[in-house]
Design a protein that fits this description.
Among the domains are: 107 residues, Immunoglobulin-like (Sandwich); 215 residues, Sandwich (Jelly Rolls); 120 residues, Galactose-binding domain-like (Jelly Rolls, Sandwich), CATH 2.60.120; 95 residues, Maltose phosphorylase, domain 3 (Sandwich), CATH 2.60.420.10. About 1% of the residues have low confidence. The relative contact order is 0.08. The protein is built from 18 helices and 49 strands. It is α+β, with helices and mostly antiparallel strands. The strands form 10 sheets. Strands 20, 21, 25, 26, 27, 28, 31, 32, 33, 34 and 35 form an 11-stranded mixed β-sheet that branches. A hairpin with a 5-residue loop joins strand 47 and strand 48.
């Protein structure tokens, strides 16, 4: 038995937390059964040495009689800013036994005195960059835009490199760097990259929030004497370039940098190096960089040693002090984007003379790594795309063109390069005018090697799923490759054409995301973006950050905006953490009030509806179901959750108001859309009937009739769905929650469209925008991936208990469907890993499960109570079994690893 996996504010050893109310969490690791914490003691010290000797000079909680091991609040004396603290914890369990102390963890508080000075090559005023969110429709003169395009060295769009030498003369203890380079930066210290993130800092609405990153520097990374800080700047979403492909154009200003480095010496003194007039800059070898258009690099412009000591920077220019971004400077608490996987060339074709197409085997978001040898001045152009034209060349028609990477050689042996400030969604790389592996034509450069880098957020995986059904296994793989491709600074729709944070994905795919990935630190970032994007009148736009204002329903649609109300509740359900409900309650209330202002007698009648619903029609606006039915049901969803939040947070007056409003909206909805004779809602479509069932808007006496109508429609269509991006989740979960999992199984266990199997048969490696990939644009969307929730909740059977948020108690209730012979899966909850695995073997059902310490689970299996059930070899007594209405048997287990055998 030991205490491990210590986190502070949901992060392992965070570096810049607020001194206000930090919270601490830990997991209990034990092979014992029925382990539950009865008390804990948490100690914090100012040094690791003091912590090791149990000298808690900052805080000693004492022995606290409590089972709480998640989000335990600090109640000690006021913490200091920019200070490192060390902590550990021990717990007591039954029979008053205490564990050993955990290993030490630490946290560092954020500074209070940054007072940033932003520097760069050109001021915003001198750059003549356009104002506005979408300046191709703004009053920015065409000739000015063209001048920017023509002037390839224009400082407002050019990547620059900045350097600052400084001298160290004392023995160093450590150093800390706070840095934000906009749009993106790469930081080096004495020529070595600091950190391993890509595209830092993460995207925000820079008029509202600007993230800075914090890095700890070891003493060994600094030298006595001269040291050099080097920074490379790129445009990112901060400064969009109107050249090559671009979805929209927005500029918050030219590339800019803020940095502060504090060096702590062994004698207790400090040295501060920060951005000021003493820094210098030069144009970097990156001659073009655009998130949407690609990146060009001229190796002949490299200045060897520019970011190291004793470099002669006499020809470099003095920086200019720039206007600071308008947004509030906040420490980035979200995990960074990193290179998480790499793929080698899988196959090579030559569709035309001199043109090679490299199949990298996986559609992904990222960029290539090129190894090449050739003559000085030769250029290798890499076109990337997720599909091929009819002639076998790379196609970008569906994903945004032109997009490419250019590398110009310096002619010095084997050269290696990869982009730094642009990425794209692709599987294929096309290169023309080059040899491959061997130099057959001496006049051409030779490609020595090519790799494909898969970038996505480093939050880490939380779950796993496998089964005897290959369609489901491959579907899980397709969806997760699409999720990873779009798991960037924001949850993007696609990694090429738009790269925008469409909000409906966050809640409609929310459970699937949470089961698969550690979203504990990521969802708060989504909520910050939502709060930043919310308008004065309370409207939450469809995308956040809102880099472009589309207008109309593409800006304001309830199914998208209601994410601002649903996400804090989903966070509470799965993590047991009510902090988002507390912090963003004003955002939730303001949005619900906005929808109320748009309602006519309780009915909201605008929006996109069940976007991309399936049928013979072209995908887009809801065609099968009324827009108003969709909008009003999501209005009700928001009101209902707001009322619950008010009650939970003891906002009694609001609770009464919104509970009454929920009743009123439900009544208006049923009056408008329910046909009392046919027992159908709206058009009788699958979405029309599923969403009111999901939201419990159907009167008890009508529920079975509505459910029967829904199932009859599915059967009449040969078990095919007609729902879309919005309706899929409600359809899937209504079937699952009402004992109709065999219907779900038949809906998805095939290779036809609409269905995941069709995409598998088509040979794709990521989920696409439409059920038939040939009809859609993007081949890398995860918006239709709502079946992940069903995989985990129904097939694996790991189900949260709404009455006990955060999996303190949960249900293990797997469904055994069709001809499936086994399913296994795991979910790493905040208390530890939950595992659930079943297998049918001859006349036995063998069920294995793992229940983390400090939790309990109700196991529910599809066997009758007269079945012989053995748990870890011992027969389960009848007194511990409960016969459920659906004929299944349930029993409660404490923590531990169990093997349950049932004779069928």
């Amino acid at each position: 038995m030991n205490v491990a996996h210590l986190t502070c504010n949901s992060a392992t050893n965070p570096l810049a937390i607020s001194i206000q109310n930090p919270v601490f969490s830990w997991k209990i690791v034990s092979k014992k059964f029925d382990v539950s914490q009865t008390a804990y003691q948490l100690v914090i010290a100012s040094t690791k040495e003091k912590l090791n000797t149990n000298e808690a000079d900052v805080w000693d909680s004492g022995k606290v009689i409590s089972s709480a091991s998640q989000d335990v609040q600090y109640t000690g004396k006021a913490l200091k800013n920019e200070t490192k603290y060390f902590w550990k914890v021990r717990i007591w369990y039954k029979n008053r036994k205490a564990t050993q102390w955990s290993n030490a963890a630490y946290f560092r508080t954020q500074p209070s005195d940054l007072n940033p000075t932003w520097i760069g090559a050109i001021t915003k005023a001198d750059s003549h960059l356009p104002e506005g969110r979408n300046y191709h429709t703004a009053t920015f003169k065409k000739e000015k835009r063209q001048a920017m395009v023509d002037a390839t060295d224009y400082l407002a769009r050019r990547s620059i490199q900045l350097r600052k030498p400084f001298t160290v003369s004392k023995k160093i203890k450590e150093a800390v760097v706070y840095v934000s380079g906009l749009g993106h930066y790469e930081l080096t210290l004495n020529g070595k990259k600091v950190g391993n993130s890509e595209f830092a800092p993460l995207w925000t609405d820079y008029d509202k929030t600007v993230y800075y990153n914090t890095y700890e520097i070891k003493a060994s990374e600094l030298s006595k004497g001269e040291n050099v800080i080097g920074v490379l700047l790129g445009n990112g979403m901060y400064n969009m370039i109107e050249e090559r492909y671009a979805k929209f154009f927005v500029s918050f200003g030219p590339p800019t940098l803020f940095l502060q480095m504090k060096v702590f010496f062994e004698d207790g003194s400090e040295q501060i190096i920060k951005t000021d007039k003493t820094w210098k800059y030069s144009k970097s070898p990156i001659t073009f960089n655009s998130i949407f258009g690609g990146e060009d690099y001229n190796a002949n412009l490299e200045q060897k040693g520019w970011n190291q000591a004793h470099f002669n920077d006499a020809n470099w220019k003095s920086i200019v002090i720039q206007e600071a971004p308008k947004g509030v400077l906040r420490p980035q608490q979200l995990t960074p984007v990193k290179i998480e996987e790499q793929f080698a060339v899988k196959a090579v074709t030559e569709p035309k003379a001199g043109i090679r197409v490299f199949n990298m085997g996986q559609n992904l978001s990222g960029f290539p790594t090129l190894k090449v040898q050739g003559k000085k001045g030769q250029t290798v152009r890499m076109w990337v795309g997720e599909g091929l034209n009819d002639d076998g060349t790379v196609g970008q028609g569906r994903s945004g063109k032109p997009y490419y990477f250019d590398y110009t050689l310096k002619g010095e042996g084997i050269e290696e390069w990869q982009p730094k400030f642009s990425y794209y969604g692709y599987q294929y790389i096309q290169i023309e005018g080059a040899n491959y592996k061997t130099t057959k034509d001496a006049s051409l450069p030779t490609i020595i090697d090519l790799k494909s880098n898969f970038i996505y957020n480093s939050a880490g995986t939380a779950g796993s799923f496998a089964s005897s059904n290959e369609i489901f296994n491959k579907t899980h793989e397709l969806i997760n490759n699409a999720i990873k491709s779009n798991f960037q600074a924001v949850l993007t729709d696609c990694p090429h054409r738009e790269k925008l944070g469409w909000l409906e994905e966050s809640h409609l795919n929310g459970p699937g995301l949470i089961y698969n990935y550690n979203m504990k630190n990521y969802i708060p970032g989504i909520m910050q973006n939502i709060a930043d994007a919310q308008r004065e009148n309370g409207m939450i736009p469809t995308i956040a950050p809102e880099y472009v204002v589309f207008g109309g329903d593409f800006t304001d649609s309830p199914e998208w905006g209601v994410a601002g109300v649903i996400l804090p509740w989903m966070y509470y359900d799965y993590y047991g953490d009510d902090s988002l409900l507390k912090e963003y309650y004003p955002v939730m209330k303001k949005y619900v009030d906005y929808l109320t202002s748009k309602a006519d007698k309780g009915i909201v009648s605008y929006g996109l509806g069940d976007w991309y619903d399936y049928g013979d029609h072209a995908a887009g606006y809801s065609k099968n179901s009324p827009i108003a039915l969709s909008a009003t049901s999501h209005y009700y969803f928001g009101v209902d959750l707001l009322a619950k939040a008010a009650k939970l947070l003891d906002k009694k007056e609001d609770a009464v108001i919104y509970e009454k409003l929920a009743i009123s909206v439900k009544k208006a909805f049923n009056g408008k859309f329910f046909d009392t004779k046919t027992k159908q809602y709206g058009t009788g479509s699958q979405f029309s009937n599923a969403v009111p069932l999901f939201l419990n808007m159907v009167a008890a006496e009508d529920k079975q009739a509505v459910l029967a109508n829904l199932v009859n429609d599915i059967k009449a269509r040969n078990y095919r769905l007609t729902t879309g991006d919005v309706g899929n989740r409600y359809l899937f979960q209504v079937l699952a929650d009402n004992g109709l999992n065999e219907v779900m199984y038949k809906m998805h266990n095939h290779y036809d469209a609409p269905g995941y199997g069709f995409q598998i048969k088509f040979g794709l490696t990521t989920l696409t925008e439409q059920w038939d990939p040939r009809k859609g644009n993007s081949w890398n969307h995860f918006m239709l991936g709502q079946i992940e929730e069903w995989f985990y909740k129904s097939l694996v059977g790991i189900v949260p208990d709404e009455a006990n948020p955060g999996f303190t108690h949960f249900f293990l209730q797997p469904e055994m469907l069709g001809d499936m012979t086994f399913v296994k899966g795991t979910y790493n909850s905040v208390y530890g890993e939950i595992a659930s695995e079943w297998e049918k073997k001859e006349n036995k059902l063998i069920y294995k499960c793992t229940i983390p310490a400090n939790t309990t689970a109700t196991v529910k299996l599809p066997v009758a109570t007269n079945t012989v059930i053995k748990v870890n070899g011992k027969k389960l007594s009848n007194s511990k079994m409960v016969q459920n209405e659906d004929g299944k048997t349930s029993f409660i287990l404490g923590s531990g690893v169990y093997v349950v055998e049932c004779v069928l």
